[in-house]
Sequence to fold (179 residues):
Amino acid sequence: MNKVYNEIKEFLENPVDNMENFFNSRAITWIDWREYDEDIIGYFNGLLAHEDIIELETKEIDLGRGIDLILKKDNKVLTIPYEDDETDRDITIKTLDDFISPKYQIRLFSESLGDDTLAFTVLNADEWKDLENEFGKEKLEFFFTPVSQFKGIFNMSMEEVMDISEKRQIEKEKILKND
Fold:
């Protein structure tokens, strides 16, 4: 198993005691709402095995957003489907997640919700399944939520974030009691 997997597993073994260290872990990549979308691909490439790194082509275009981002790996090519006027971190991350699937999955480290900089991680599907088998789906997804479950991670209103935070506090108590 890889280093990212081991750090996530160690965190899940005792989230309360390991929380502070995990926020500084190399198992997660921090993405600010102001990041350039092309940089986001590079951050996630840093969490992938060398042979699975995604090639990125940036192409200037005449639309308001100014660029197209094109993902390439082996014979697979995909242009990220942005709106005409702007790029969008949510679309970048979800499209990348789809692109690397089914081998890998991107998840949000949900404890980072509520800030304008969010933490994400990537593992291969087998590693996520091993963690789910060991710690349970509820606990795993509580802390590491698949990005596919969100409509807009960076575009949530403060009301939505507060609602999620309140629900998470109640859920956290239940999950940690079961440990």
In short: DSSP finds seven helices and seven strands in the chain. The longest strand covers residues 117-124. The radius of gyration is 17 Å. Helices lie at 3-13, 15-23, 37-45, 89-100, 125-135, 137-143, 158-177.
